[in-house]
Amino acid sequence: MQRAMGMMAPLGFRLQAVPSAPRRTLSCAQDVLRRTPLYDFHLAHGGKMVAFAGWSLPVQYQESHVDSHLHTRRHCSLFDVSHMLQTKILGCDRVKLMESLVVGDIAELRPNQGTLSLFTNEAGGILDDLIVTNTSEGHLYVVSNAGCWDKDLALMQDKVRELKNRGSDVGLEIVDNALLALQGPTAAQVLQAGVADDLRKLPFMTSAVMEVFGVSGCRVTRCGYTGEDGVEISVPATGAVHLAMALLKNPEVKLAGLAARDSLRLEAGLCLYGSDIDEHTTPVEGSLGWTLGIVTSGCPSPCLKKNVAMGYVPFKYSQPGTQLLVEVRRKQQMAVVSKMPFVPTNYYTLK
To answer: Which InterPro entries is this protein grouped with (predicted)?
Structure first.
């Protein structure tokens, strides 16, 4: 984890007790929530549905959260992330539009290469994190957070109108696909059985359109939110259940929900928008430029069998090994500053 260059620094802690999961997102009434194309599939497979960012999603299935977490680290798990906002940015000036909204050099992306980037406001605060892919089909493919759906969409649509009024060639389309994440060390092996493309040629943060287990028009991106090797598959909504069933036929694959996804990303040192980063956090402060008295994310680590957390402290207390007192549920607990990720990542790159 790079150290921030300001007065505050992001870091990881190992501590005695932290909240197991953020609660504020699980609040909407079930009858007003949006449903993914896999909603009935989740119910049929024992999914425990909760409200998350305006959607009804499985927090876990019949197995425990810890079992799902460890299965992902040792084998692979299937997550429904169809709540994410998927968009296409079209036109000759698509790069100009995106570079006016995000940090990062979009123009230098090779065909079908993607990058993690950030929408920022005029003060440099983070509006959202997103992945931008420069597709070989002549558009940018953008995936951003469901919790920021309305904000992100309005931001991009406003910029489209602004540039069009100046004569630019640019447009935006919402991609009405499901999005499935297959994550874990055996994910590529499982997926290879259902595609003709050689996945050894698809390294981390690249993508390709292919037929997957008989479903055509799928965009497969080698990325994820767990720290493990894996893919996210943007699949036409009508083929989502078929694809999920085909993947589950392999005994390596089990379903996993929001709880495992959160603890996996925390072990991997990946930020959660709204908890670890927000409009009051700059990319440098969030160690996304490649502070505490406040814990932003925390949970028991199934792999380490210790409690871990992210937070912010004054820079002078940010050295690994520094002992701190943090307040957890109105009680002070000993914590030790640790490097992140807590668990090493296993992304696939070409040798």
So the answer is: GcvT, GcvT/YgfZ/DmdA, GcvT/YgfZ_C, GCVT_N, TrmE/GcvT-like
Global pTM reads 0.82
Cis status of the peptide bond prior to 320, with omega within 30 of 0:
no
Q: What is the percent of the chain where pLDDT is above 90?
A: 65
Give the burial string for 149-167 (b: 16+ CB within 10 Å, else e): bebbeebbeebbeebeeee
Sheet with 76-80, side-by-side order of all strands: 207-212, 215-221, 230-236, 177-183, 76-80, 253-255
Sequence-distant (6+) residues with CB within 8 A of 330 are: none
222-225 contacts: CB < 8 A, separation 24 or more? 222/348, 223/114, 223/131, 224/181, 224/183, 225/81, 225/181, 225/183, 225/261, 225/264, 225/265, 225/268, 225/270
Question: pLDDT tens digit string along 321-334?
Answer: 888 777 777 676 77
Q: Which of 5-14, 130-139, 275-284 bottoms out in mean pLDDT, i.e. has the lowest?
A: 5-14
Spatial contact of 228 and 73, defined as CB atoms under 8 Å apart: yes
The beta-strand segments (E) located in the chain are: 8-15, 34-35, 48-52, 55-60, 76-80, 85-90, 102-103, 113-120, 126-134, 140-144, 171-174, 177-183, 207-212, 215-221, 230-236, 253-255, 294-301, 306-314, 323-328, 331-338
Is residue 254 a contact partner of residue 68, using CB atoms and an 8 Å limit? yes
Q: What are the Cα distances from residue 227, in Å, to 183, 260, 348? A: 9, 12, 10
162 is in an annotated binding site: no
| Contacts for 124 with CB less than 8 Å, ≥ 6 apart | 282, 283
| Strand-pair category, 331-338 with 323-328 | antiparallel
CA dist., res. 302 & res. 129, Å (int):
26
- Cα 309 to Cα 212: distance, rounded to the nearest angstrom: 37
